[in-house]
Amino acid sequence: MLRFVVRRLLQLIPILLGLSILLFAWVRALPGGPAQALLGERATPEAVAQIEAQLGLDRPLWEQYVQFLGRAVRLDFGASLQTGQPVIEEMARRFPATIELAVAALLIAVAVGIPLGYLAARRYGTWLDSALVSASLLGVTVPIFFLAYLLKLVFAVQLGWLPTAGRADARARTEHPTGFYVLDGILTGDLNASWDALTHLILPAIALASIPLAVIVRMTRASVLNVLHEDYVRTAEAKGLLPGTVVRRHVLRNSMLPVTTVIGLQMGVLLAGAVLTETVFAFAGVGKFMADGIVQRDFPTIQGFILVIAVSYVLINMIVDIIYGLLDPRVRVS
Amino acid sequence: MSFLRVRDLTVTFSRPGKPPVRAVDGVSFDVASGQTVGIVGESGSGKSVTSLAVMRLLPARNVRVTGSIMLGDQELLTLPARQMRDVRGRDVAMIFQDPMTSLNPVVTVGRQLVEVIVRHDRKSTTAARHDAIALLDRVGIPDPVRRLREYPHQLSGGMRQRVMIAMAIACRPRLLIADEPTTALDVTIQAQILDLLRDLVEESGSALVMITHDLGVVAGLCEQVHVMYSGRIVESAPAAGLFARPAHPYTDGLLRSIPRIDDDHHGRLHTIRGSVRDVVAWEHGCAFQPRCDHAVDACLGGPPPVLDLSDGPPRQVRCPRPMNQPAPAPGTDRREVSA
């Protein structure tokens, strides 16, 4: 197990090295630069050159890269051009919001997707199955920002059931020891604050969950359909086991194997989707900070954000692989 | 006294856009308690479908099962699903063909064995584990305590089939159905598994229905044999009589097709010409007729009658011209049992 983890962490090094080069080149290939963005369209070339010199952008690319890399290994991504604060601090402050949102979305996707996928498989070929398959196709194809605005329009603006934006009521004065607002309310005994945070979380989480939910429904359906035809399910039936035992021990456990892998891969979709969702709902997480950073050509923020996301993605999938090993003894790492 | 009575069992698969197929067509046979019965036939003859029909394990959709399957005084075909689950594993247990795929790969051997004991014998898991260890030991698995904690992929094919057998005999069923239990195994292992089955059946007194395409398996194991062709039983006979004097040309062809080690002329191996048709309707005559060397006009125009040839133990053949039989005494006609 330890060897497996160490090996995966070592594999991270070439991935990150390659990614950082791509990233570095890509950010600098964006039209306009931070100086232009800072000074506006009418800036004189002299002023632009002066700012660029301040930021070190006038030096050769390879020199900039070496300097960036040297700092990045110490988790120093430089100061954000938007706020002047170190990028790592800005992200640390905003990460809990994004994690809270991503976890909420993942919970929705898993808790709704797996039962629906199972139901579709069990009702294979019926109108219910077709309806679920069509709905999941819609879920994958509708863009997040469209769905997000639609949800906001219906449930926040028209019906007024839920807040339109933000993470908490702006008038609330509550403490945030962890930065996870729902958890903070529970920790400080302020359950109203938890509830408030939860209502702010619902719409963005649903919008963000749409793609993973649809993928999980389809994957679960296909996987259950496969497993239902397996010989060992027939063996379980032949033993006269109760339907609940057959489903739990012999159908679901096996059909969850491919679903687990897909859930891990969906984390990438969640983190990327957070950029759009947080922007629509003015949800103060790293996604929104990143979106603002792109507009401002905030190089340090963009670079730091993407690297951190990449590391999280690899780590999450490593955890998924470990879980997979627990579920399937055949791939267990000794 | 037979305790499994199958009468006129017919299984029809409906296929979207195609005419339905009768995989099993009016099959009747009896199994006496403690008896060993073989059902022989090639792929597609309906032998596996027959066994799955007895277990009521055929898919519910697009499949129609008619006739009667009496286990003791219970009609299995109309038994509510809940009661059928009590019968499965407790009264009738099944051993499947491929032990590689018939065991759940992500559940330990022990758990798969214990779950059937807990289900039917209403024992605690601890007590069931004790039974499981004894069962693994009985089917010849060394170090059963360790094996119990292992997963199927850690066992060899022969070991896995032994686990399947242990699962089947766990609740001392009165009837064991073994569907080609040795087909997926090495030849040397096949003999061991058959020996084990024979010993277990003798020891427990349970009846055994052996589904196989291998006449050698039948010869060594079964008292009564039914030969199936294209969904119907074409010949039923005690094993000894069947091998000595096969009455149906199909049985005869099968026996001749077995290569013999003491064969002195090194010629071509005997085969039955043609191959099994996808769908053969018995309505228009004997389904084997197109491949039969002895076919006459009487073979066409409807299913051939079943003739009773018994001169002692029950013996029937579905053929107007049974082979290898002494000519009937003048004036006496062979009894027609059914059309």
UniProtKB/TrEMBL annotation, chain A:
**Where does it live in the cell?**
Cell membrane
The record's annotation in InterPro entries points to: BPD_transp_1_N, MetI-like, MetI-like_sf
In the UniProt record, does the keyword 4Fe-4S occur? Answer: no
Q: Name one GO cellular component term.
A: plasma membrane
Recorded topology in the membrane? Multi-pass membrane protein
Chief localisation class: membrane
Per the record, the GO terms for biological process are: transmembrane transport
Q: Which residues form the ABC transmembrane type-1 domain?
A: 95-324
Q: Where are the transmembrane segments?
A: 101-119, 131-151, 197-217, 257-284, 304-327
**Do the record's keywords include Protein biosynthesis?**
no
Q: Give the keywords, sorted.
A: Cell membrane, Membrane, Transmembrane, Transmembrane helix, Transport
PANTHER family per the record? Answer: DIPEPTIDE TRANSPORT SYSTEM PERMEASE PROTEIN DPPB-RELATED
Q: Which family does it belong to?
A: Belongs to the binding-protein-dependent transport system permease family.
State the name under which the record lists this protein.
Answer: Peptide ABC transporter permease
Q: Which organism is it from?
A: Micromonospora craterilacus
Q: What is the lineage of its organism?
A: Bacteria, Bacillati, Actinomycetota, Actinomycetes, Micromonosporales
Automatic annotation (TrEMBL), chain B:
* Pfam families xrefs: ABC_tran, oligo_HPY
- Would I find Nucleotide-binding among this entry's keywords? yes
- Tell me which positions the record assigns to the signal sequence: none
User: What is the membrane topology listed in the Swiss-Prot or TrEMBL record?
Assistant: Peripheral membrane protein
| Region feature (Disordered) | 310-339
Which keywords has UniProt assigned to this entry?
ATP-binding, Cell membrane, Membrane, Nucleotide-binding, Transport
Q: Name one GO molecular function term.
A: ATP binding
Q: Which GO terms describe its cellular component?
A: plasma membrane
Q: Where is the ABC transporter domain?
A: 4-255
What SUPFAM superfamilies does its record include? P-loop containing nucleoside triphosphate hydrolases (SSF52540)
Subcellular locations according to the entry: Cell membrane
Task: Give the UniProt record's GO annotations in the biological process aspect.
Answer: peptide transport
Q: Taxonomically, which superkingdom? A: Bacteria
Please give the CDD domains that the UniProt record associates with this protein: ABC_NikE_OppD_transporters
Q: Which family does it belong to?
A: Belongs to the ABC transporter superfamily.
NCBIfam families reported for this sequence: oligo_HPY
* UniProt name for this protein: Dipeptide/oligopeptide/nickel ABC transporter ATP-binding protein
Source organism per UniProt: Micromonospora craterilacus
